[in-house]
Amino acid sequence: MDCVVTGGNVKVLAKAIHSLSRIGDELYLEPQEDGLTLRSVNSSRSAYACFLFAPLFFSRYAIPNGHGFRCKMAIKSVQAVFRSLASLEKTVEKCHIELDGDKNRLTFTLHCKHGLLKTHNLSFQDSESLQAVFDKDSSTNVLKAQPRVLADTVLNFPPSLEEVTVTVSDERVWFRNHVDQEAELSKAMLTELCLSSDEFDHFAVRAQTSVTFCLKELRGLLVFAESTGLPISMYFDEPGSPVVLSVTDSVLDGNFVLATLSDEPCVRQKNPQRAGTSPPPSDDFMNDELESCLIAMDNSMAPGPSVTEAVSAAPPRHAVSPPAKADPRRTTNSEPEEESGEEEEEEDPGRPPNKKFRSLFFGSVYPTGSPLSNRTMASQKVLASDSEDDT
Amino acid sequence: MPLSTQSQADEAQYVLVASLDNARNISNILKAITFKDHAIFNATPNGLKVTVEDSKCLQANAFIQADIFQEFTIKEDSVGFQVNLTVLLDCLTIFGGSTVPGVSTALRMCYMGYGHPLTLFLEEGGVVTVCKINTQEPEEPIDFDFCSSNVTNKVILQSESLKEAFSELDMTSEVLQVTMSPSQPYFRLSTFGNSGNAHYDYPKDSDMMELFQCTKTQTNRYKMSLLKPSTKALALSCKVSVRTDSRGFLSLQYLVRNDDGQICFVEYYCCPDEEVGED
Q1: Which residues of B touch A76 (CB under 8 A)?
Q2: Is residue A187 domain-shared with residue A297, that is, in the same domain?
Q3: CB distance from A100 to chain B under 8 Å?
Q4: Same domain for A212 and A293?
Q5: For residue A77, which residues of chain B lie inside 8 Å, CB to CB?
């Protein structure tokens, strides 16, 4: 791989990496025919982000022939290359990204003002392909707004706020902070903003609905969108199915796929009817919540240890249990407890409580249980199961 | 003037009296060498030299020339004492160290000689504080024996360009490797951290390079933890001279301009880490 980024595009690339760092700890890098993709997924697999930089984005773009090369590395180390974002625009004239296959090093060379040359040789790991399957074009609701509109909206929420609920009607959109059902209502504060459809560049609501998703990732994308001035499009359907936030221009494409909270039990039965892309019903273990959005993977490249880390569409339950058990995303607060749905609580009190929408996105993080119990759940849409899990 | 209210008798006993209209001119420069509590003060008619050392491997000197002070009276050829630098700095900024223009703390620093405390009279807005800091037996500073005749390589850079590099340095790297060479890469700073290595190369014809005198290719490693305090001096400075001698010892000299446009120097000496292996 041999790419050169020049001028203002260096900052765009840097901002993309910074916004990806809001998602996960690792950066998946894959040079492809149609451009360079940078991806990241969070540890509970409930948020995924991908940037595709078209060959035209680069002043030189050459990729290795033959087998597809892909790798992952700590996103922090890549961030370090572009540490001083503020001065980047003024100082960096050219960024050269080169793969040294022999030394297994990915080299970022920044050609700066005054002839200063910064070379970062980063080590990387081979990785599986990381890809979320989503179909934003079939979404029922599409909103498109200038980043300023959304940034001003988000600004009204406290930085500590984790989830935001977006409700749409034919003419309006409400942004509201999400309050846990189990939160103490006397202490809860509700902030709600209403935006008229005029505020949006594009406003297509076919079904009035309300989705709740994490604010952190939206904030991350906003940083990128604001610096590039690109409008953000938001594609969503109903609670429980993912929301896709995307930015596009002629040379780049960014998509953030976020799980939404499914707080209504009825959602589970609605889902299978809807999406044609959902997994076939015979896939018992892939319950309907996976539906149109799951990460498929390709193990062909690295069948080694990296496989265990893969977000598999069809793994045996036990193989993917660790991420679910750990749910490391929110280790510092007690939120999962507060927020896990009531049914689920009853269903398996012994299990680590899991915020429902964390598990929605990819099957791998669904609270583990025997395939049997899941099958029961899926087919009967009865969420409370017997105590078999507790034994 | 409150500072002159002391009796003439007292005044006569001091071996060292130094007054300064703006205490920031001295506190700032002392901050640039604050990485250990103990500072060795050595005053001569030329001015004040303050030395701080760490692990017998690092030495920082701040030179404050006599003419920086409005008054600098010394009755002996050389007056030496040691004080706790942190305490001294706390005293110098006792009025909050305000950076508001027009508001400054006036300082009169007096020392009566061996066994006596260092006495500071500080005045701001008509309020006077008198601080007495106990002095300690002065230690002999390490002689790094760094003489200009042994210097193999020397570059002078505008600090701006080094500040950027130092602010970005990978602190997971245990060492900072400095390469100086008459040929490429001329002047290179390298780190070897958890996520890989990084090099910062300064070409010899860069606008930032004021002087480039390298006679021999030299690569030495210095402990990052030792060099880190020098970034404080770097931040204050406008120019920096980087020199290495034949033994690989590093000398960093910072030219610091104070609030009044006067020039002071801060100097760091650092021992090299163990020999560089084949790399």
Answers
A1: 195
A2: no
A3: no
A4: no
A5: 193-196
CB pairs under 8 A between A and B: 65
Q: Which residues of chain A have a CB within 8 Å of the CB of B168?
A: 80, 83-84, 118
| 3-class SS letters over chain A | CEEEEECHHHHHHHHHHHHHCCCCCEEEEEEECCEEEEEEECCCCCEEEEEEECHHHCCEEECCCCCCCCEEEEHHHHHHHCCCHHHHHHHEEEEEEEEECCCCEEEEEEEEHHHCEEEEEEECEECCCCEEECCHHHCCEEEEECHHHHHHHHCCCCCCCCEEEEEECCCEEEEEECCCCCCCCCCCCCCEEEEEHHHCCEEEECCCEEEEEEHHHHHHHHHHHHHHCCCEEEEECCCCCCEEEEEECCCEEEEEEECCCCCCCCHHHHHHHHCCCCCCCCCCCCCCCCCCCEEECCCCCCCCCHHHHCCCCCCCHHHHHHHHHHCHHHCCCCHHHHHCCHHHHHHCCCCCCCCHHHHHCCHHHCCCCCHHHHHHHHHHCCCCCCHHHHC
Total tally of structural domains belonging to chain A: 3
Residue B196 to chain A, least CA–CA distance (Å): 4
Q: Which residue in chain A is spatially nearest to B187 when comparing CA positions?
A: A116
Closest-CA distance of chain A to residue B63, Å:
31
Asked whether the beta carbons of residue B202 and residue A116 sit closer than 8 angstroms, the reply is: yes
Per-residue pLDDT of chain A (391 residues; tens, 9 = 90+): 889 999 889 999 999 999 999 999 999 999 988 999 999 999 988 999 999 999 999 999 988 776 678 889 999 999 989 887 777 888 899 999 998 777 788 999 999 989 999 999 998 888 888 888 788 888 899 999 999 999 999 999 998 898 999 999 999 999 999 887 777 777 788 899 999 999 999 999 999 999 999 999 999 999 999 999 999 999 999 898 999 999 999 999 999 999 998 765 544 444 433 333 333 333 333 333 433 344 433 333 433 333 333 343 333 333 333 333 333 333 333 333 333 333 333 444 444 444 454 433 443 333 333 343 333 333 333 333 344 444 3
Structural domain ending residue among the three candidates A206, A226, A258: A258
A76 to chain B, any CB pair closer than 8 A? The answer is yes
Q: What is the CATH number of the domain that holds A101?
A: 3.70.10.10
ipTM of the complex: 0.83
Which of A27, A117, A123 to probe by mutation at the B interface, max B CB count within 10 Å?
Answer: A117
